[in-house]
Amino acid sequence: QVQLQESGPGLVKPSETLSLTCTVSGGSVSSGSYYWSWIRQPPGKGLEWIGYIYYSGSTNYNPSLKSRVTISVDTSKNQFSLKLSSVTAADTAVYYCARDKSGSPKYGMDVWGQGTTVTVSS
Amino acid sequence: EIVLTQSPATLSLSPGERATLSCRASQSVSSYLAWYQQKPGQAPRLLIYDASNRATGIPARFSGSGSGTDFTLTISSLEPEDFAVYYCQQRSNWPPRVTFGQGTRLEIK
Q1: Residue A68: strand, helix, or coil
Q2: How far apart are CA A74 and CA B54, in angstroms?
Q3: A77 with A28: CB under 8 angstroms?
Q4: B98, B99, B105: best mutation site toward chain A, by most A Cβ within 10 Å?
Q5: pLDDT per residue as tens digits for the range B59-91
Q6: Which of A60, A121, B23, B61 is deepest in the core (most CB within 10 A)?
Q7: B89 near B39, Cβ under 8 Å?
Q8: Whole-number pLDDT of residue A103
Q9: Mind telling me how many Å the CA of B19 is from chain A's nearest CA?
């Protein structure tokens, strides 16, 4: 059974770069069958897609965040990562990683990490 | 960009009642719509994919319907554990985007 686990600092200073990692267990990030996604949820608000990566390194990002986001994959560690630069208080959120089947968009995100809370504050 | 609009924002019902949640897309998404349930402090859980297919382990009281721009999630008889927030979501391959609806809160009346 595939499991995802987010990790990274829970507190980031304004203007700095937020860095999170999602570790995949029970499966392989090198599988060509999936996109590996990041989603966030500000306190008391809805879900916002950040972007996803394919094992080859191909990425797609939310246009509203594209200038600040980098998602990368490390197949040797079975991980994928998120970097969000120039953060402000508006980036305070629970950050989730999730798995989405590649190819047809009909399958939804079937595996999610538990989420990690990131607060942007000095 | 495709916008998903969910209604109502909040739905107040009692256990045993039938719940009907709506999701409308700003343009056709074919049948490529998913529904998620989120309880406080938990990650979202996939309920329905491809508009009407239950995900693994999802009880039969959950059903989805619709295509094109109008979709419905129905819970036939509410159990106490069903009170949560529900989101619809779509992914397009071109341009490559993922969008979520703003959510419907299902609360106990």
Answers
A1: coil
A2: 32
A3: no
A4: B98
A5: 999 999 999 999 999 999 999 999 999 999 999
A6: B23
A7: no
A8: 85
A9: 20
Torsion on CA atoms A116, A117, A120, B3, rounded to nearest 10: 90
Residues of A (26-65) whose Cβ lies below 8 Å from B: 37, 39, 46-49, 52, 60, 62-63
**Is pLDDT of A34 > 90?**
yes
Q: In 3D, which of B46, B86, B95 has the Cα closest to residue A2?
A: B46
Q: Given the DSSP bridges, would you call strands B62-67 and B33-38 parallel, antiparallel or unpaired?
A: unpaired
A-chain residues near B98 (CB < 8 A) = 37, 49, 52, 62, 100
- Confidence grade of residue B93 (pLDDT, cut at 50, 70, 90): confident
Beta-bridge mates of residue B20: B74
Tell me the pairing of strands A18-25 and A3-7: antiparallel
Chain A, nearest residue to B89 by Cα: A108
Q: Please tell me the predicted confidence (pLDDT) of residue B38.
A: 98
B81 DSSP assignment? G
Question: Which of B49, B91, B102 is opposite residue A46, by nearest beta carbon?
Answer: B102
Q: Which two tokens stand for residue B42?
A: 């938990």
> Do residues A85 and A98 lie in contact, with contact meaning Cβ atoms separated by under 8 Å?
no
Tell me: the pLDDT tens digits for A51-90? 999 999 999 999 999 999 999 999 999 999 999 999 999 9
Say yes or no for a CB contact (<8 Å) between B98 and A49: yes
